[in-house]
């Protein structure tokens, strides 16, 4: 599903002698896997995610997602790609002047769904994320955890195959963080591949999913699902 083959990325403006943000990274993620990416700030996690979303291009190596080799990607493939991959961020990125319903509907509107389809789909995703009854609220009336749920609803409304969550609990207290982690697990159980970055080792241990550690642009550990707790004892 997601293949990175010897991917190197050096940002423009950084000296050739400096370490690249990603240095010959190879990685294979299977459909429906839940993968946790960990590493200190600046390790290369976001750059790796941007390889998958096609926000940044590698200087060398191949990125293949869902059978599409990004070096062959044509403009006509882009909408398909956007549909395939949902993304949520630490800072939610909600539209402040739109309600919960409207925020969740946003991606569907952009994609040209009819008002009827939107009326059908949005309550389903709001129910999935546990926000039924909050449709008319505005973001400033919500807790951080609820805001992240809206962001997740917006990303999953189009039923992406892959959900990328870049530090989704970074702005949340513990209680709300656990709710978001459980929601990501639920979405994964429904068959979506989840790629999560986190600094929170309690979350890593609780999930006990495949955990990849990046350091200095390289993968330094790749612990399979079910082994994490043991590996830490
Ligand atoms: P992480 O997500 O693990 O914090 P990043 O992928 O953001 O790491 O960053 C990896 C390296 O690339 C860091 O040295 C960072 O400073 C650099 N970097 C990230 N984005 C850019 C950019 N747009 N321009 C230049 N350097 C960048």
How would you describe this structure to a colleague?
This protein has eight helices and ten strands. The protein is α/β, with parallel strands linked by helices and 233 residues long. It has a domain at 95-159. Strand 7 (162-166), helix 6 (174-189) and strand 8 (193-197) form a beta-alpha-beta unit. Helix 4 packs across helix 5 (144-156) and helix 5 runs parallel beside helix 6 (174-189). The model has no long low-confidence stretch (mean pLDDT 93). The site of adenosine-5'-diphosphate has 12 residues, from helix 1.
Number of strands: 10
Share in β-strands: 15-25%
The total count of helices amounts to 8
- The 3D shape can be described as globular
Strand order of the largest sheet: 6-7-8-3-9-10
Q: Which structural class matches the secondary elements?
A: alpha/beta
Poorly predicted segments:
none
Query: Overall pLDDT, averaged?
Result: 93
Overall helicity = 25-40%
- Summarize the helix and strand pattern as letters: EEEHEEHEHHHEHEHEEH
Q: What is the terminal separation in angstroms?
A: 32 Å
Compute the CA-based radius of gyration: 18 Å
The largest pleated sheet is described as:
6 strands, mixed
């Amino acid at each position: 599903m997601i293949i990175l083959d010897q991917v190197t990325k050096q940002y423009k403006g950084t000296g050739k002698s400096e370490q690249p943000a990603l240095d010959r990274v190879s990685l294979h993620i299977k459909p429906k896997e839940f993968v946790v990416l960990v590493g200190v700030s600046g390790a290369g996690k976001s750059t790796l995610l941007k390889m998958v979303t096609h926000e940044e291009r590698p200087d060398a190596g191949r990125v293949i997602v869902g059978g599409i080799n990004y070096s062959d990607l044509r403009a006509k493939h882009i909408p398909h790609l956007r549909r395939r991959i949902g993304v949520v961020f630490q800072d939610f990125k909600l539209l402040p002047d739109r309600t919960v319903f409207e925020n969740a509907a946003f991606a569907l509107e952009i994609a040209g769904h009819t008002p009827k389809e939107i009326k059908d789909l949005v309550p389903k995703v709001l129910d999935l994320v546990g926000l039924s009854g909050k449709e008319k609220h505005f973001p400033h009336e919500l807790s951080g955890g609820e805001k992240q749920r809206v962001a997740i609803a917006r990303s999953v409304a189009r039923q992406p195959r892959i959900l990328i969550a870049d530090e989704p609990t970074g702005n949340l207290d513990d209680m709300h963080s656990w709710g978001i982690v459980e929601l990501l697990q639920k979405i994964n159980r429904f068959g979506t591949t989840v790629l999560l970055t986190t600094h929170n080792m309690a979350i890593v241990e609780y999930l006990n999913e495949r955990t990849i550690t990046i350091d200095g642009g390289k993968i330094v550990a790749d612990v399979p699902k079910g082994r994490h707790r043991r590996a830490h004892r």
